[in-house]
Amino acid sequence: MSAVKNPGDSRLRRWLHVGFCAAVLFFLVAPVLVVIPLSFNAEPYFTFTEGMLRLDRDAWSLRWYSNVVGEGRWLPALGKSLVIGTAATIVATTLGTLAALGLNSPAMPGRGLIMALLISPMVTPIIITAAGMSFFYSDLGLGQTYTALILAHAVLGAPFVLIAVSASLSGYNHDLNRAAANLGADGWTTLRRVQLPLIAPGVFTGALFAFSASFDEVVVVLFIGGPEQRTIPREMWAGIREQISPEILAVATFLIVFAILLLAAVNWLRQRDYVRTG
Amino acid sequence: MVNALNDKRVRAALLAAPLVVFVAVTFLAPLVTMLVRSVYEPAVADSLPATLEALADWDGRELPDEEIFRTAGMEFVALNEERALGSVATRVNRLQSGMRSTLLGSARRLENDLPEGSWRDAMIEADEDWGEVSTWLAIRRAGERFTPRYYLNALDLDRGAAGEIVAQPEDRRIYVSLLWRTFLISATITAISLLLAYPLAWLLAHARPARAGMLLLLVLVPFWTSLLVRTTSWIVLLQNQGVINDLLVVLGILADEQRLSLIYNMTGTIIAMVHVLLPFMILPLYSVMRTIPPRHMQAAASLGGSFWQSFRRVYWPQSLPGVAAGSLLVFIMSIGFYITPALVGGRTGQLISSMIAYHMEQSLNWGLAAALGAILLLLVVLLYLIYNRLVGVDRMSLS
């Protein structure tokens, strides 16, 4: 009724609300995107030069991109990030998917407690995890090895897989298992032929999250990685700390494009998940 | 039937077991290692066994006798020859400053010129600190294998000469105030995030599904973008010669010499962290608000309530689970945050995490790093348990 009594008030409120939300969305997205045009700056500055604003061709250039490719620092780093990320994702996805299947069975004892334990690497501050791992792996003599980094990134990524697969399984119809059993399938066959194909979108979503977590992880790399394991985040960290150069913006642009592709992939998978189970 | 249920239980447990074991070995064991390090420090005890055994019977009131001086002096010399005295000296120095040079200097002099007469006179001549009872007490205390001193230090406390607990000297009290600052900054970030997220989540929750999906993607873009990239962006935007200051100068709002210091201080930490953590506030709010039927607000309005009355009495109470979930999540993530404050926080925008990193990487005081880590871990676990009770971790969602 108040809306009827005072229509101007309500419309004003509506506009204020939409304007405020637009500002918040701008705050969320603009800082990420501003890096992209700045990475084509011909000058070593971090702001738009007058030439760039006038759209002078000379003010824009690809020099930072050619530096990134030519410098011999970033490509090996990309290779290392890919190796560690892929290995960690395989471990995390395998263990996380199996655990999700177990934990989402109604028969699972102590479900809540185990779930809380398995998710805890995701919520524990990374600085604590990294400090503990640094003590642990150096005591084991595994300090500064790929093995240590892969195990570390796998345990950090597994909770993402667990959550994503659990979400997929929550829409899963357990009657299908019974139907498969009635048709003579054993537990393993049911898992492989019925359950896994249906939750595949969840598994891939989890794997993408786990990979992205590893691909962006720097604190554990700083604490337990040696001079050999200079991944992309490690190089970016050094670049930002020591002497920030526009090359960083070129690498950042690459990572933004990568993030948008990942987001698109996850979004696509989610829609598939709805089609099948929702 | 019972057998069938047992079979299912066993199968479920077997499926979960590999990850449980993996998390126990690669995550819990490192945390336990850290907790052990925070109270266990065997290095000095292992290096100076004879000295510490001799000091065990000493009364601690008067200067030790010649026998103890000789045992200790010879052990210092022997360690110095093995180049192993340095790490012992560093550890004793943490209990009493100046001890590093006392130990290393005296050992060098004794090594060059082994005393023929009294070790006691020779050592006091080499460094008069050896004539102080407190020097010997410090060595005895440094030799304790299990020690609460890292926790005491982490709380700005220390033990006095007689073992009583005393406050650290004023200039060395840093951790309690840093912990407070961590709390205040985290609370500020949580509050700002809630203010920004609430109206947006409302809009998303009650928009047409297609449009809500589009807008949600905008929320998720920063969520997916590398943390280091987002931090780089803020450096680019906020620095003195950065985009925002340039814009303010060009628009004539600021004169060139009035440029704002927006980064490398607490302001920088808060702005960049709100940006990083905002999606973690928006998503739980959104998922709760989606379940509140818009009819409730319409009903309240038709009963004569003003917008604010209806909001306060009808909508807000129903959205509280989302407020609690989002706020707890953002607060938990804030108090342990490291990367962003380390890169944009300067001197005044550092959180407790940066002291852990400092002691891990620079001062190499691992015991203290472990104790600070353990205190932070305790806080996070408590908040996590509250979160689990209120929201349930299994209801955590990724999108």
Question: What is the fold's blueprint, element by element?
Answer:
The complex is a heterodimer of chains A (278) and B (399).
Chain A: H1 2-5, H2 7-38, H3 50-53, H4 63-70, H5 74-103, H6 111-123, H7 126-139, H8 146-170, H9 175-182, H10 187-215, H11 219-224, H12 232-242, H13 246-277
Helix pairs in contact in A: 2-13, 4-13, 5-8, 5-10, 5-12, 6-8, 8-10, 9-10, 10-13
Chain B: H1 2-39, H2 43-47, H3 49-56, H4 66-81, H5 85-95, H6 99-112, H7 119-126, H8 133-142, H9 149-154, E1 157-159, E2 165-167, H10 175-206, H11 209-224, H12 227-238, H13 243-250, H14 266-289, H15 295-302, H16 307-335, H17 339-344, H18 352-361, H19 366-390
Antiparallel strand pairs in B: 1-2
Please, could you describe this protein's structure?
The complex is a heterodimer of chains A (278) and B (399). With 278 residues, chain A is mainly alpha-helical. Chain A has helices at residues 2-5, 7-38, 50-53, 63-70, 74-103, 111-123, 126-139, 146-170, 175-182, 187-215, 219-224, 232-242, 246-277. Chain A is globular and about 75 Å long. Residues 1-5 of chain A have low confidence and may be disordered. With 399 residues, chain B is mainly alpha-helical. Chain B contains 19 helices and 2 strands. Chain B has helices at residues 2-39, 43-47, 49-56, 66-81, 85-95, 99-112, 119-126, 133-142, 149-154, 175-206, 209-224, 227-238, 243-250, 266-289, 295-302, 307-335, 339-344, 352-361, 366-390; strands at 157-159, 165-167. A two-stranded antiparallel ribbon of chain B has the order 1-2. Chain B is elongated. The model of chain B has no long low-confidence stretch (mean pLDDT 90). The chains are: A mainly alpha (278), B mainly alpha (399). The interface between A and B is large, with 99 and 94 residues.
